[in-house]
Design goal:
Length: about 375
């Protein structure tokens, strides 16, 4: 079991048992891409791939983090130096910093969320660490506060200007449902998807084109959104209207704003469809989202576009790029009877994508 692997790795590293093992899932965002940092709505769900953290407090001021992934190096540093963490350790160590820990910790990570594939392995790690700190120290922190800590770690320690969607999904989602999240008020609603009952499956197709949200492309898109909101005289693009956007001068801010405004509308369209018992009609909305992300937000790449075309051509009801963009994964809504043909069509591309079927799952939890 994954929990046992985390415990064994902790014992091997520290010669004692952890105080607890905590896990948190990756996520896919069904619809609502790049609306989160514009204070809009998103509709993610947690997936059945998790990151496990075995944790224990120390009686000194040292923090030691390690992973059983052979590609990572152990890191140890003082509590006073947490904000200076770099590399993979910036995610767990940054979360400790954001929570203001005042004592040492030993953390050992066993991850099963694929890295760089658009499933938000970073948020899964941050969320598992945040829950471990809250539960083991008895701090009265709700899950929204834990999500905020994960976002602050990414923003201020990792240097990635992401919104709060990923951490909120990892901490708050329920099995079988997506999370309708208002990224301004942090109000949430569970939205039962009904995909399984309708004979539908969700595929996540990893293009194997890697991306890094701390590089310039993501930040540039966010800057375009800020510029558009300022030009429109609104607090954020969630407050903009499409007619007002179309009156902006031609250029990148107008295109970024048009994507955000139309994507916000698509979130509510999808919620309405699944609540009306018409989940199969979600597919074309996904494809419309991809066209907007490709043409207006300009975060797709040829390898991803080829996957979308292959999936839809083989019977997917709709598909789109998800995550920060510039690579990563495609989400496709597929009749269960077409999972095989769609998977085969996508695997015929080069580089050969990795195809995974995912199911809406529960959020962060204590496992041991």
């Amino acid at each position: 079991m994954s929990t046992d692997r985390a415990v064994e790795a902790f014992r091997a590293a520290h010669g004692r048992d952890p105080e607890g093992v905590f896990s948190a899932p990756g996520r896919v965002n069904l619809i609502g891409e790049h609306t989160d940092h514009n204070e809009g709505h998103v509709l993610p769900f947690a997936v059945d791939r998790r990151t496990y953290v075995a944790a224990a407090r120390r009686d000194d001021d040292r923090v030691a983090v390690r992973s059983d992934d052979p590609g990572t190096e152990p890191v140890e540093l003082a509590v006073a130096d947490l904000a200076s963490a770099t590399g993979w350790s910036a995610y767990p160590v940054g979360t400790l910093w954001a929570l203001g820990v005042g004592q040492g910790w030993d953390l050992v990570v066993h991850g099963e969320v694929p890295l760089g594939a658009g499933l938000s392995s970073s948020a899964a790690l941050e969320s598992a660490v945040a829950l471990a700190v809250a539960e083991l120290t008895g701090r009265d922190l709700d899950r929204v506060a834990l999500a905020e800590a994960g976002r602050r770690a990414e923003n201020e320690v990792v240097g990635a200007p992401v919104g709060i969607m990923d951490q909120a999904a990892s901490l708050l989602c329920r099995e079988g449902s997506a999370l309708l999240l208002d990224c301004r008020s942090m109000a949430t609603e569970d939205v039962a998807l009904g995909f399984e009952e309708a004979g539908l499956a969700v595929l996540v197709i990893d293009s194997r084109v890697r991306h890094d949200l701390a590089d310039g492309g993501y930040a540039d898109r966010r800057a375009g959104c800020v510029a558009a909101a300022e030009a429109l005289g609104v607090p954020a693009l969630r407050d903009a209207t499409l007619p007002a956007v179309e009156n902006l001068p031609e250029g990148a801010p107008k295109k970024r704003a048009r994507h955000v405004v139309t994507e916000q509308a698509r979130v509510h369209e999808v919620v309405g469809l699944v609540r009306a018992g018409r989940p199969e009609e979600v597919g074309p909305v996904l494809s419309a989202s991809h066209a907007s992300l490709r043409d207006d937000y300009e975060v797709s790449v040829p390898e991803v576009d080829a996957i979308v075309d292959a999936a839809v051509g083989a019977g997917a009801l709709g598909a789109r790029i998800m995550g920060g963009g510039f690579g990563g994964s495609v989400i496709a809504l597929v009749p269960s009877t077409r999972v095989g043909p769609v998977s085969e069509a996508c695997r015929g591309l080069r580089p050969e994508p990795t195809v995974r079927e995912v199911a809406p799952s529960a959020g962060a939890r204590r496992d041991a």
